[in-house]
Design brief:
This protein is α+β, with helices and mostly antiparallel strands and 106 residues long. It is 40% helix and 13% strand. It has a domain of 66 residues: Arc Repressor Mutant, subunit A, CATH 1.10.10. The protein contains four helices and five strands. Helix 2 crosses helix 3. The longest helix is centred in the middle third of the chain and has 13 residues.
Length: 106
């Protein structure tokens, strides 16, 4: 059984102010999974943490957290702040969390 958030969000339509779908696509905006949103929210709350603690405190498997943090780092949404796998959220990651539209399709 696959993870419920394994697929990236449907980014083909954006929400407008009145809640209707708008057909504009922003190619610079990253697609986030529910796990990504959980990881970004956690790091926004705590500042920086070890990858293993991020996994334990978010309820996600360590291997999954490692792969998602790597992808988020490549997208510029988190950054590694030490050689010991300590990560923190970036300004771009905070901006992604402030978005009013859900990033995943439920």
């Amino acid at each position: 059984m696959g993870a419920p958030d394994a697929q990236p969000a449907d980014r083909s339509a954006e929400c407008s102010e009145d809640g209707d779908r708008d057909e504009r696509i922003d190619p610079d905006r990253p697609s986030l999974t529910r796990s990504d949103e959980r990881l970004l929210s956690y790091l926004a709350d705590v500042g920086a943490d070890y990858q293993a603690f991020v996994a334990g405190n978010t309820g996600l498997y360590d291997d999954h957290v490692e792969s998602r943090l790597t992808a988020l780092a490549e997208a510029g949404l988190v950054e590694r702040v030490s050689g010991e796998a300590v990560y923190r959220i970036t300004d771009a990651g905070r901006a992604a969390l402030r978005d009013d539209c859900p990033r995943w399709s439920d």
